[in-house]
Amino acid sequence: TRSQMNSQNQIQRRFSFEFFPPKTPAGMEKLQTVRDELATKCPDFFSVTYGAGGSTQERTIDTVLKLHNQGIDTAPHLSCIGATRNDLTELLNLYKENNINRIVALRGDLPSGMGAHGELRYANELVEFIREHSGDHFSIEVAAYPEFHPQATNAEADLINFKKKVDAGANSAITQYFYNIDAYFYFIDRVEAMGIDIPIVPGIMPITNYANLVRFSDMCGAEIPRWIRKQLEAYGDDVESICKFGEEVVSEMCSTLLQEGVPGIHFYTLNQAAPSLKIWENLNLDALVSKA
Ligand code: FAD
């Protein structure tokens, strides 16, 4: 598998940056600055997350349309949990009318206390629904979990469930973030053995804040390897050292991934430009992006 990936090294890779929809006008202003900085890198697309259960939905739409109209393709994330078919149809119509051509299709997670599960239960059903709605209009991204989804009954079942999304018509996948490279390549080997050949782009989370990273990783089932955790712990409140170490570790990891022929990188920016840009510079990614 790795040699196959290596032989694809000449293939053009794709780069993307993910944002969350800001809550306040000040947050939107800040995102505009971040967007402008990252736009200089000519990414293939931006994406904007979406809160299941209503929390950020309007803000996602507003942010997506605003960014998309500034010249870089912007993909809304769309989750099906808690939504009706009517809700989804309306959103898909709106995105199609506004020339949005890529969607990140997810099941989503309901905020605790919200009981209604909606009409579609899993992301593969959402992919199917989008294809029924508008054929091949949208390029569909789905989520992949090299360290397995926290609710998966077992590893095997999670792989089979991933395949259901691909069979339903997903064009490519973005992974949950990870710091164990071997988990990613093992996942690739396993899904290739199942006949899956869509690009599976590593999702990369820069390290800038230890407490947040630990909290988030516990929830989403990403492991922070012990040596990274121990080193970050040792830095305590020394934010500068945390960021410097994080930048080194993540740049090194991305460099290995690229050498091994991954099809691109998706940055979880958390609406900050600097951490992703530093990694970008360290990897000299300008050289890989054609600025036509
Ligand atoms: P699914 O693929 O449906 O999988 C969910 C679980 O159900 C897994 O354990 C799987 O094994 C199991 N399963 C799947 N299909 C079936 C089936 N047919 N039958 C039985 N079991 C099944 N969350 C948000 O709320 N908003 C976002 O914008 C957002 N963006 C994300 C972007 C990326 C790139 C990633 C990796 C995650 C994102 N998430 C987002 C988080 C995501 O919504 C959660 O991880 C959620 O718990 C699962 O979503 P999914 O699409 O992977 O679900």
Could you give a quick summary of the protein structure above?
With 292 residues, the protein is of the alpha/beta class. The protein is built from eleven helices and nine strands.
Describe it for me?
It is a single chain. Helix content is 47%, strand content 14%. Helix 5 packs parallel to helix 6, helix 9 packs antiparallel against helix 10 and helix 10 crosses helix 11. The protein is of the alpha/beta class. It contains eleven helices and nine strands. The site of flavin-adenine dinucleotide (FAD) has 26 residues, from strand 3, strand 4, helix 5 and helix 6.
Task: Tell how many strands the DSSP assignment holds.
Answer: 9
Q: How large is the share of residues in beta strands?
A: 5-15%
CA gyration radius, whole angstroms:
18 Å
* Residues in helix, %: 40-55%
Spans of at least 5 consecutive residues with low confidence: none
Head-to-tail CA distance between termini: 31 Å
Total DSSP helices: 11
- The mean pLDDT is 93
C-alpha geometry: globular
Oligomer: single chain
Structural class: alpha/beta
Question: What's the helix-strand series?
Answer: HEHEHEHEHEHEHEEHHHEH
Biggest β-sheet description: 9 strands, parallel
Cofactors, ions, other ligands:
flavin-adenine dinucleotide
Strand order in the largest sheet: 7-6-5-4-3-2-1-9-8
Pfam families: MTHFR
GO biological process, one term: methionine biosynthetic process
Pathway: Amino-acid biosynthesis; L-methionine biosynthesis via de novo pathway; One-carbon metabolism; tetrahydrofolate interconversion
Family: Belongs to the methylenetetrahydrofolate reductase family.
